[in-house]
Amino acid sequence: NAGVTQTPKFQVLKTGQSMTLQCAQDMNHEYMSWYRQDPGMGLRLIHYSVGAGITDQGEVPNGYNVSRSTTEDFPLRLLSAAPSQTSVYFCASTKWGQSSGNTIYFGEGSWLTVV
Amino acid sequence: GNSVTQMEGPVTLSEEAFLTINCTYTATGYPSLFWYVQYPGEGLQLLLKATKADDKGSNKGFEATYRKETTSFHLEKGSVQVSDSAVYFCALYPGLTGGGNKLTFGTGTQLKVEL
Q: Per residue in A80-95, pLDDT tens?
């Protein structure tokens, strides 16, 4: 009953460091995505994937990379962290190809601070 | 493109007051509509959803009716409690007929309920 699991929950990085936020789901969902949440801006889509081996950019992809080598995992990489990437990051997943009423499941969030 | 507009917060109410949080949307096709709730320090949780016109989603005393004629999905609760204090997000999910699998969020409305 794990659902969507994100790690780490909290991280402090120095400017220029790289890191990977992990996301895993055990529901066999094809669609996975990463959002960032900033005050007054709601959630903005960074990258998404509709299946293993397929990724695409969202609204705010710059500075982030993703890969989808398996159905279960969708890591988000910060290549060279910048203070503007200080945010709360959410991973989400859902079934692809079925009705539009499918529930989207979210991870618990990763609080990232870049100093 | 798709968009969701929510009333700005914060909304401050006394316990047992009536709550309305307005949400309107722009979309092609027949999207599904959602309300998510985020309690302090936590991730997003699905509160309720509606997948077609005139559907009413309900959960924990909250209700929202999918109004296609006014493109609205307002969230209501008859008597709020202090424990309802959270940020509420309206979201739209277009599905395959509406331009892909991207979930579009409103900017969120913070609700504060006081004794």
A: 999 999 999 999 988 7
Asked if A42 is an interface residue toward chain B (Cβ–Cβ < 8 A), one would say yes
The dihedrals phi and psi of A81, each to the nearest 5 degrees, come to -60, 140
Token pair listed for B10: 């914060």
- String of b and e for A9-27 (b: at least 16 CB within 10 Å)? eebebeeeeeeebebbbee
The model's pLDDT over A32-67, given as tens digits with 9 standing for 90+, comes to: 999 999 987 788 989 988 888 889 888 899 999 999
Out of A42, A90, A101, name the one closest to residue B51 (CB).
Answer: A101
Name B19's Cβ contacts closer than 8 Å, sequence gap at least 6.
B11, B13, B75, B76, B77, B80, B84, B111
